[in-house]
């Protein structure tokens, strides 16, 4: 599905160029123009079909690609590379932020639901440390955490800290073992709603979401590529006139698709660095090619 999704815009462009090119060579466009048929009316069905392909593109990106990409990555990592499942092997040096609480975990053992080398920082709304917990290990059991061999620092009213040692103590924290597991998905493995929630989540935790926000807007912009390619194809075909045809249509399609994806990847990369607004980075290629298509269409009409 991912390959089909990526190939739809090029297929629309190629179909538009070949169809109009053959119509031009057989003088069908000239006859329609002489009969008083508006070019907008002639090309209207092409734009409607392109819009339908955009809906198919969106459907694939939203429902099929996330499932199949996730499965493909699983097969490659587990069956081909023989890597263990992310949920079953130990993970090291984990930082996790939840609200005003920051966790530093040296080692996480998901199967045993065990944390080793735990430090928990608790802050107030001014980001002043009000409590710190250091423990040799933390064991999850009976819906709570039991920490062993640790120290607690509590901030007093006068700004000093008291130190309290303990051998074993129960703490009711809202985080569960699975919350600490690093199971980050690639953008193509997430639906638009999932990616939006992920952006909101990492922003609420104070992390930089620029890359994922660019991908979020790109998920909205990419389905419209089919409409943009149809518009570009109409402009190129009308500009070429009788010089168009199957060979010219295929060559122009490949060239335009190559240029589009080159510009798209370049602009998205700039957006990832934060040097371009995420919304503009996602939509700039579409805007550029839409303007190019309208320019060629207007030039052909004159």
Query: Biggest sheet: strands, sense, closure?
Result: 6 strands, antiparallel
The percentage of residues in β strands lies in 15-25%
- Count of folded domains: 2
Class from helix and strand fractions: alpha+beta
Q: Residue share in helices?
A: 40-55%
Number of DSSP-assigned strands:
6
User: What string, H for helix and E for strand, traces the elements in order?
Assistant: HHHEEEEEEHHHHH
pLDDT average, as an integer? 85
Count the DSSP helices: 8
Write the layout of secondary structure elements.
Layout: H1 2-25, H2 28-34, H3 39-80, E1 91-98, E2 101-109, E3 114-123, E4 129-141, E5 144-155, E6 161-171, H4 192-204, H5 210-221, H6 225-240, H7 246-273, H8 278-301
Antiparallel strand pairs: 1-2, 2-3, 3-4, 4-5, 5-6
Helix pairs in contact: 1-3, 1-6, 1-7, 3-6, 4-5, 5-7, 5-8, 6-8, 7-8
List keywords for this structure.
single chain; 302 residues; alpha+beta; 2 domains; 6-stranded antiparallel sheet; 8 helices; 21% strand
What does the model show?
- With 302 residues, the chain is an alpha+beta fold.
- It has two domains: 2-80 and 185-301, no CATH class; 91-180, no CATH class.
- The chain contains eight helices and six strands.
- It has helices spanning 2-25, 28-34, 39-80, 192-204, 210-221, 225-240, 246-273, 278-301, and strands at residues 91-98, 101-109, 114-123, 129-141, 144-155, 161-171.
- Helix 1 packs across helix 7 (246-273).
- The protein starts with a helix and ends with a helix.
- The mean pLDDT is 85.
